[in-house]
Write a structure and sequence with these properties.
Blueprint (H helix, E strand, L loop, with lengths): L8 E4 L11 H11 L3 H10 L1 H6 L4 H12 L5 H14 L5 H12 L3 E6 L6 H6 L8 E4 L10 H11 L6 E5 L2 H8 L4 E4 L3 H10 L3
Parallel strand pairs: 1-2, 1-4, 2-3, 4-5
Length: about 200
């Protein structure tokens, strides 16, 4: 069934909204390559992620920062293995969300992606099968800003040629939806496909 929400643009986060969370097999693979204990590794992994997502550090620089915090040294081959395993872990699909995106597209609803992600994700977002549903793809690394910075939502609205009040924003992190809501954006904190389905259908014409 098509979902038509006229005069509004629905902007989707990618990670853990369109994609599923990395599986245990995926995260175990990354951890095994690192050769580190789980707790300190993941603490260092996330502590340095903003720079990668904002595009202010490169992929080798990111992994060098992680290694420095862990007190280890990885050769270039190991860094490449880490990047491949980590990158792969984020490429999954939540079928129910993708189906809703297809229904929105079929209903003529304008669609975009806004994701905190590095430069390496941009091609996949745009060239994957799901990419054909989106009018625009906004990747934080290309914007020199990351959610929940209010500037990133304003830039998206400006680029789409809409007012912030015409935007519907969906994200799995409440800090991001809260920041957008303060600007007058209609938001939905994603906790599952069933609730998202009900939310979108409640906005239909």
């Amino acid at each position: 069934m098509a979902i038509s929400i006229p005069n509004r643009t629905v902007v989707f986060d990618y990670g853990e909204v369109i994609s599923r969370s990395p599986s245990k097999d995926d995260t175990d693979a990354v951890l095994a390559i690192s050769g580190c204990e789980a707790e300190p590794f993941w603490a260092a992994y996330w502590a340095n992620r903003d720079g990668l997502d904002q595009g202010t550090i490169s992929i080798p620089e990111y992994w060098a920062l992680v290694a420095a915090e862990l007190g280890v040294s990885w050769r270039a081959s190991r860094v490449h293995e880490l990047w491949v395993a980590d990158f792969r872990s984020w490429w999954s699909a939540e079928p129910g969300t993708v189906d809703l995106i297809e229904e929105l597209h079929d209903g003529g609803t304008r669609l975009a992606i806004l994701s905190n992600a590095g430069f390496d994700f941009s091609s996949g977002f745009r060239r994957s099968p799901m990419g054909s549903f989106f009018e625009r793809v906004f990747v934080s690394a290309e914007m020199d800003a990351i959610k929940p910075d209010p500037a990133i939502y304003s830039e998206v609205a400006r680029e789409l040629g809409i007012e912030l009040g015409e935007m519907i924003f969906i994200d799995n992190k409440s800090v991001n939806t809260d920041a957008a809501a303060e600007l007058g954006v209609t938001t939905h904190h994603f906790t599952g496909v069933e609730h998202l389905d009900a939310f979108l259908r409640s906005l239909q014409a």
